[in-house]
Design brief:
10 helices; alpha+beta; five-stranded antiparallel β-sheet; globular
């Protein structure tokens, strides 16, 4: 088993000092990691909750917190798809993809990549994780497989090179505006559980998204994101006046170029 890598909140801030709000999201995830891991250890030791019940509860609460943009129903995703994407079977991810995942949740707040039949409403997982695409911005991260992205084009990925004590790949967050890659110690279920809780709205910047929508901004489509006209990394403001709807591929490429020009390539 590959050893687990720990990052402190201080380390996160040190590598992400160029913009404050992305650091907030990362710090919340890091802080939740320690609490979640400790809670899970205590629960497992006491044997009070069945793992399947915990998983289903987390998924149900996520759907309640961020209603699906469209009816829920079973997809064609199977464990073979999970193995092809991640290099190993992750039952919790397979179950979420098959039963809960939809192209969009929360009026476009967060999207999950899906099977090849997702159609015009979503983005196929194997297409988005194929040559080019998000990897153009983060070429040095071949071990990652993106499973979701939010309205600001932040990519949520599972890392095949970092495993939990139970052998599950751990979550990494790739932030194009900040240029950072956070390597958390959370499993897929733990991230879903975190997003469904009180910190989820802050991590996803739900309040800013609501302001954007109230000002007439459109919900991003499956290949779109809301980008800053004047990037944060060169002094842009986190205001809706500085935002525009754009192509996600283009945004990731442009941000990679900005960070390269500043001498701080994304995720390195």
């Amino acid at each position: 088993m590959i050893p687990r890598t720990r990052m402190s909140a201080r380390a996160s801030v040190a590598t992400s000092s160029r913009s404050a709000m992305p650091v907030l999201a990362m710090s919340l995830i890091l802080a939740a990691c320690a609490g979640s891991n400790a809670s899970n250890e205590a629960t497992n030791a006491a044997g009070k909750r069945d793992s399947a019940a915990m998983r289903n509860d987390a998924f149900e609460r996520f759907v309640e917190a961020y209603p699906a943009d469209g009816a829920l129903g079973f997809s064609a995703w199977t464990e073979r798809d999970t193995v092809a994407m991640l290099g190993r079977d992750v039952p919790e991810y397979t179950q979420f993809q098959r039963r809960y995942a939809r192209p969009s949740f929360g009026d476009g707040l967060i999207r999950f990549v899906g099977d090849d039949d997702v159609g015009a409403r979503g983005l196929p997982a194997f297409e988005w994780n194929g040559p080019g695409r998000w990897r153009t911005a983060w070429p040095g991260r071949p071990q990652l497989a993106v499973f979701a992205y939010d309205w600001l084009a932040r990519q949520y990925a599972l890392d095949a090179a970092r495993l939990s004590a139970g052998g599950e790949p751990l979550v990494s967050l790739l932030d194009p505006d900040d240029g950072a890659v956070l390597e958390s110690e959370m499993t897929f279920r733990e991230l879903i559980e975190l997003l469904a809780g009180s910190k989820g709205e802050r991590i996803l910047d739900k309040r800013l998204y609501a302001t954007w929508r109230a000002a007439g901004g459109a919900a991003p489509g499956p290949r779109q994101c809301v980008a800053y006209k004047h990037p944060l990394v060169v002094g842009g403001k986190r205001t809706v006046e500085n935002m525009e709807l754009g192509d996600m591929d283009v945004h990731l490429t442009l941000m990679a170029q900005h960070h390269e020009q500043l001498g701080a390539p994304m995720g390195r």
